[in-house]
Amino acid sequence: MTQLETPPVATEAPARDPRGPLKIGIVSPYGYPHPGGVNDHVRNQHEHLRELGHDVWIITSKYGRERESEGHIIRLGTGWAFPANGSVGRVTLGLRFKRQAREVLDAHGFDILHFHEPLVPFLSPTLLDASRTVNIATFHAFGGFSPSYWVGRRFAGRLADRLHGRIAVSGAARHFISRYFPGSYEIIPNGVDLDLYNDAEPFEELRDGTLNILFVGRFEERKGLIHLLKAYHRLRKRKVDARLLVIGGGSKAREYRRFIGLRGLRDVEFLGRVSDTDKARYFASADIFCAPNTGQESFGIVLLEAMAAGVPIVASDIHGFKNVVQRNVQGLLVEPRNPRALAAALYTLARDPDLRHEMGEAGRAKAPDYSWPSVTRRLVDYYHEVRERVGTSPARAD
Known about the structure:
Oligomer: single chain
Distance between the termini: 43 Å
Largest sheet: 9 strands, mixed
CATH class of the largest domain: Alpha Beta
Strand content: 15-25%
CATH topology of the largest domain: Rossmann fold
Number of domains: 2
Order of helices and strands: EHEEEEHEHEHEHEHEHEHEHEHEHEHHH
Shape: globular
Mean pLDDT: 90
CATH architecture of the largest domain: 3-Layer(aba) Sandwich
Structural class: alpha/beta
CATH superfamily of the largest domain: Glycogen Phosphorylase B
């Protein structure tokens, strides 16, 4: 070791689960590790379960030229994306993946299969139908009337009956799914990496006295960026010295850039998709986080990220957000699709640094309730509760 090197700092490893390790297959029909809220959830669930000593695998779809397997990722069938519900839908197809699914399940002998959105065709239903172990599902979605669920419940009811345990990420998600598939749902929320956001350093070039407003999300209608751009236009007319930082991408990028160009909006920075580390640094650089979503959100992970970073929030007053952000505590909630109301809330925070600090600290105080270690312990407790109730402990194939 040279004089300039420092010895590594010893960190305490998470305590192993005293009940012994489980072999867990996490099923994501969304083409892991492609960007998205569910896949972020899957990644963190996988990492934190492994830290507790469990043997965890991710079963997902193959997109493009991805490998069929790498590390603890198993890919079956071919995934396809298509526009749906103001977002992107997914479906998995393949000539051999039904047989592959049976072979994978026979070879691994999982104690638990944990499905995320178990009725998304056709990967999850195929694995669920072939499963001979304890099946648990997490439901993330929320929305209004769903024609696909309304029609599909007649055909998917048998599959839903194969679930031994059901989780919803919020009361809104539970309300939505129980309309089509009634039953008992445990609420276990999404999690946030507290250390990542607590320890992030801001970008020095952004700490120049200009107010930074941050948006994070895909460029699609329900994420509401167009409404934020309209609100930002109003804000600039009121002579607020602000900068809008936009993280994300998608098919509407050209439309948004055209809006900016036609109105001569200054200081809008499109940052594209960034690494988790850089995203945390942008949160650390932000003075206000804005989530102008139009609806059909069950939770809002980005709100947790803002809270963990101590950033005050301006968000749409929608079902999935109200369970995370308390009105006038961690942030301001406004009518969705209303740029005038959005601009007014941004103006209120822009003009009041003490209120920004107060709301940011309130968010930081609430964020530990959603830390990934806390969420993972609740998941493992639920796994054991369901296994004991079902009385299933399948033999593993070595």
